[in-house]
């Protein structure tokens, strides 16, 4: 079951069951989860360290790098899901609301193909 067939709710349930089976809820204060998210993000970043932009696309195509990168990406996602569970926030609603704000902040006709601060 890939992205097209899996809901965020199903993924949250998988993560919630994993945490419940280990009784890890006491350790899942938002502070700890955010710190864990930062650590896992740094571990993901490490795979692309010292690689320039265009070459970074090739890193994940290397057979010996693909699985470790996927593992770190999953760790980041797991921490994000755990944080949304701990904060009782709906990720889908949050993303939709943020994309509306981004569309106003970065109108396509002004920012198409550009990066400006």
Describe what this molecule looks like in 3D.
This protein is an all-alpha fold and about 120 residues long. The chain has a domain of about 60 residues: Helix Hairpins. Helix 1 crosses helix 4. It starts with 7 loop residues before the first helix and ends in a 6-residue tail after the last helix.
Overall mean confidence score, pLDDT: 96
Total helical segments: 6
Order of helices and strands: HHHHHH
CATH-wise, what's the superfamily of the domain at 28-91? MazG-like
CATH topology of the domain at 28-91: Helix Hairpins
User: What global shape is seen?
Assistant: globular
**CATH architecture assignment name of the domain at 28-91:** Orthogonal Bundle
Distance between the termini: 39 Å
| Largest sheet composition | none
How big is the Rg?
A: 17 Å
CATH level 1 class label of the domain at 28-91: Mainly Alpha
What is the strand content?
A: under 5%
**What is the share of helical residues?**
over 70%
Number of β-strand runs = 0
Give the SSE map:
Elements: H1 8-22, H2 30-46, H3 53-59, H4 63-86, H5 91-105, H6 108-111
Helix pairs in contact: 1-4, 2-4
What is the gist of this entry?
This protein has helices at 8-22, 30-46, 53-59, 63-86, 91-105, 108-111. With 117 residues, it is mainly alpha-helical.
Key words describing this protein structure:
single chain, 117 residues, 70% helix, Helix Hairpins, mainly alpha, globular, 6 helices
């Amino acid at each position: 079951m890939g992205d097209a067939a899996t809901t965020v709710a199903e993924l949250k349930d998988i993560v919630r069951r994993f945490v419940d089976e280990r009784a890890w809820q006491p350790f899942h204060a938002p502070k700890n989860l955010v710190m864990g998210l930062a650590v896992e993000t740094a571990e993901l970043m490490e795979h692309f360290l010292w690689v320039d932009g265009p070459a970074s696309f090739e890193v994940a195509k290397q057979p010996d790098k693909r699985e470790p990168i996927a593992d770190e990406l999953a760790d980041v996602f797991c921490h994000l899901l755990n944080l949304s569970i701990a904060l009782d926030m709906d990720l889908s609603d949050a993303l939709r609301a943020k994309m509306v704000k981004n569309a106003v902040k970065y109108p396509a006709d002004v920012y198409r193909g550009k990066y400006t601060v």
